[in-house]
Amino acid sequence: MKKLFFTLTALLFGLAACAPQPSEPSPLQHTNLQSSTLTVMTHDSFSISEEVIRAFEEANNATVTFLQSGDAGSALNKAILSKSAPLADLFYGVDNTFLSRALDADIFEAYQSPLLVEIPAEFQLDPQNRALPVDYGDVCINYDKAWFAENGLPVPQSLDDLTKPEYNSLLVVQNPATSSPGLAFLLATIDRYGEDGYIDYWAALKANGVVVVDGWSTAYYTNFSASSGQGPQPMVVSYASSPAAEVIYANEPLSDAPTASILDGCYRQVEFVGILKGTKNRALAEKFIDFMLSPQFQADMPLNMFVYPVNPAAELPAEFVQYAQTAPNPTRLDPADKREEWIQAWTDAVLR
Q1: Lower CB density within 10 Å: C or N end of the chain?
Q2: Range of the domain at 87
Q3: Region 333-337: what's the mean pLDDT?
Q4: DSSP-assigned letters across all residues of 201-262
């Protein structure tokens, strides 16, 4: 999907155009490479353990640098605008909400990693292998348990509940034009209410005081009461894995998560990686994609970005299993060529 980085930065899920597919070396095999330096463009939520990256660098006599470029939507825009002079060799973090925009922009080279045979077909959304899946998670509404208990207010159980007067001004969401979780939540409402009804739903949310901010980080760390301890909104669009992060990174040991997810109206976000067209480091880029899909890298993601690995061979940490959640029936609506139309209609109804 996307997606989630909680070590005091933001969390949530690569791409290309058709190109010849050279034979692939094994993920960690030494080869003669054109360059010993690889640059990976990412969203700001990217995080992985230093020892994992060091293992790749040592095995390949290479240096890997990461170019964090804002939220997923902003990072993709930068990649598209710089496609005549690419800023990196790889792009990680475009998710299924922005996938068609990335593919239509023709900024990526195809690569059929040998590791794809281990990845379930449900995550392989680009048949040309320009976008290779790396992780997934569910975008849901998270709520502050203590706030609802202290105020004697029942937790909303559905999207419909959010328009009720007792929840006035209690929800913060992200702008779908700039934020991938914001777009994911918009798509969840379109899937639920249809193209003829979602604007009416958002008009009802607006009338009920929904708060809109540009990105996940502002929504979660500034507006959300459970994270900042003083934010005005006890509900936020985030991830079903967010409660696990709250426990693991708490200042004081916790026996239970202070937040939980409303599992109605969630969106299954998948994040992808791909090789930027024009890279001078094609061989090394291929090897890094193979590495990202390997169990070593995949098993390191949950406690760094709070996402689920797409490789079933990766073992999930016990804390993640205990506190993270997945929605029973998440939305998977593909925006395709309707994305801009839907976002514009949302903008006209909610921001103007």
Answers
A1: C
A2: 37-136+269-318
A3: 87
A4: HHHHHHHTT-EEESSHHHIIIIIBHHHHSS-SBSEEEEETTHHHHHHHT-SS--SS-SEEEE
